Amino acid sequence: MRLADRNGTAKNVFSGIFQKLGASVLRVLTSLFVPAITFYVLYVGFMFLKRSEAPAAVLAVVAIIWGVGGVAALYFVANWLIGRFPAQVRSWLQPFLFVGPAMIILGWYLFIPAVRSLYLSFFGPNSQKFVGITNYVYCFTDRTMLQAYRNNLLWLILGTGFSVGFGLFIALLADRCRFEKLAKTIIFMPMAISFVGAAVIWKYVYAYKPPGQPQIGILNAIVTAFGLEPVGWITMRPWNTFFLIAILIWLQSGFAMVILSAAIKGVPKDIIEAGRVDGASELRVVFNIIIPNIAGSIVTVATTILIITLKIWDIVFTMTNGLYGTEVLASQQYKMIFKFLHYGRGSAIAIILLVAVIPVMWYNLKRFGQQEVF
Amino acid sequence: MKEKGTGKRGGFTVSLILIVICILWTLPTLGLLITSLRDEYIATKTGWWTALKDPKGFTLSNYKQVLIGKDYTYVNVEGVEVTARSQNLLLAFANSLTVTIPAVVIPILIAAFAAYGFAWLRFPGRKFLFTMVVALLVVPLQLALIPILRDYNRIGLTGTYLAVWLAHTGFGLPLATYLLFNYISTIPRSILESAFIDGCSHFKTFMRLILPLSIPALASFAIFQFIWVWNDLLVAMVFLGTDQKIAVLTQRIFGLIGYLGEDYHLLTAGAFVSIVLPLVFFLALQRFFVRGLLAGSVKG
């Protein structure tokens, strides 16, 4: 326990020892006291926020200050604490201060849950009784689950395919157009809209009124204008899943477009010019020069949207809540947790989702390994 | 005509196709905006596009009702008296801000520290830990719902803002750490060394030098995370619970979908309230957002 003062040069041996001892004890005490005070203050703040009946605006401001300030304060106190150690110990502790908090949170929220979910997936509804692979048998035989796989596959293929396809198409068009910036902003804008907001928007697009009444949904207005019967877009199996996927395409094409547009700008101009000089048609320039050159970006965009479609939940939850045969894996999992209170099956579905992303994870790691950043 | 990009060679057809696509893309949102400004009777009886030909019946009362509306009673078709609860979305707006601001700042701070540590400190296990960050980039958050919910219930954290902040921090950290590492590791070594010669500690160098230098990268991730947290429904539903006092906008809008059903004039007003802030942010800071997306997409 030598937290001794490095500059202390004792003239008098005895008083020096006493001074040193006293100083060390004092140092240890303050070292413990300051973090303890910090934690206590943060705890008092937490309890205030939890119990207080103060006006909402006050609570909001206090909560924000408490949350942001609390984290900053913890870093400062930790740094102060580390500064009280001798230089050698300090440099050994330094990485813990910088990387430690991130690693603890990543471990708690993502890494360990993977293991815990795997464990829980072998147990019953309330995680008490070991049931072996019963939950997985259920997940691969239940009719709704099978329907969810089929729908998820549709989301995956059509959602990803059309988002990337439209994104590429629009990026290519915009690249050849005078109002490129405006067009890109318009297509990109839905990215800022939540899935719930989008659900309201599209519920209205798909709105259905019985024949004879004026249609307020634009799609049915068009359909009836042609003299046809109005369509219940959202309830019409199996096509309703396609109409839900259309919402995702509307939201995500802008993302694909932005990334691919930047990639297209990066294609060396002399190659394209050379192709044109050789008399290649614009279509051939696109397919034989531009697309092979941006293949990496296309893969990137595709995997990103692929992961989104795999986890898709909000659109289904808000538009149909999984009714009319639109169930997907994530909405099934949510139901298992909150409706059927079956943690075992919920965990099993989570593990199935994890297994499904492993190829992408492996691909990412392989690419990261090639970068040699370390 | 050679300008930027691959050379502008588009003719009239290209412009026309693009204009048609842009109109198609805008129509759904335009419908939302127009309907939210029409009065109840006209909005439930006619399509919003009729307002373009015959502009009448515009009102702000839908917004007044969803933002600060009061309770009112009416007699429904079956002759039963019903009380319509007020839809105080202003409170939900404040709650959304309370959830979002710390849920953006906290992961940025923690990730910036970690990125600095990975970039400039030498310690055993450095490469392994960063590889873990890369691996966790794509792990679905569904995996964490049950274990974290059990932890929260055990320590009484469910239904508090802290619970949601921490969850968003956990789920946002891999991308934040990865993005900020990519940026911070490219800061020239000489800048840091001059700081060390002046006697700065790592902490001081980080606070005084690296954080200010990293502002473009921090801003990019901040916008990204802001839109993601503000628009999130799942994390809020699971960890914040359904107490109206602390429910965020997305939860309330979701509730309204079931509660208001066909009352599109109110539903659209509520939805517009929820999308206006990210939309403004997005339009104002689009450049940073695009930069963040491009940097993030390197992850593949």
Query: What general form of chain B does the structure show?
Result: globular
Query: Remind me, CATH topology of the largest domain in chain B?
Result: MetI-like fold
CATH superfamily of the largest domain in chain B: MetI-like
User: Going by CATH, what is the homologous superfamily of the largest domain in chain A?
Assistant: MetI-like
**Average pLDDT level of chain A:** 85
CATH architectural category of the largest domain in chain B: Orthogonal Bundle
Radius of gyration of chain B over alpha carbons? 24 Å
Largest sheet properties of chain A? none
| CATH class division of the largest domain in chain A | Mainly Alpha
Average of the residue pLDDT scores of chain B? 81
Largest interface: A-B, 127 and 123 residues
Q: Unreliable runs of chain B, pLDDT <50, ≥5 residues?
A: none
Low-confidence stretches of chain A: 1-8
Number of domains of chain A: 2
Strand order of the largest sheet of chain B: 1-2
Oligomeric composition of the shown chains: heterodimer
Give a written overview of the molecule:
The complex is a heterodimer of chains A (374) and B (300). By secondary structure, chain A is mostly helical. Chain A is 74% helix and 0% strand. Chain A has 2 domains: 108 residues, no CATH class; 235 residues, Orthogonal Bundle (MetI-like fold). Chain A is built from 15 helices and no strands. Chain A is extended. Chain B is mostly helical and 300 residues long. Helix content of chain B is 71%, strand content 3%. Chain B contains 15 helices and 2 strands. Chain B has a two-stranded antiparallel sheet. In chain B, α1 packs across α14, α4 crosses α14 and α6 crosses α8. The longest helix of chain B has 32 residues. The interface between A and B is large, with 127 and 123 residues.
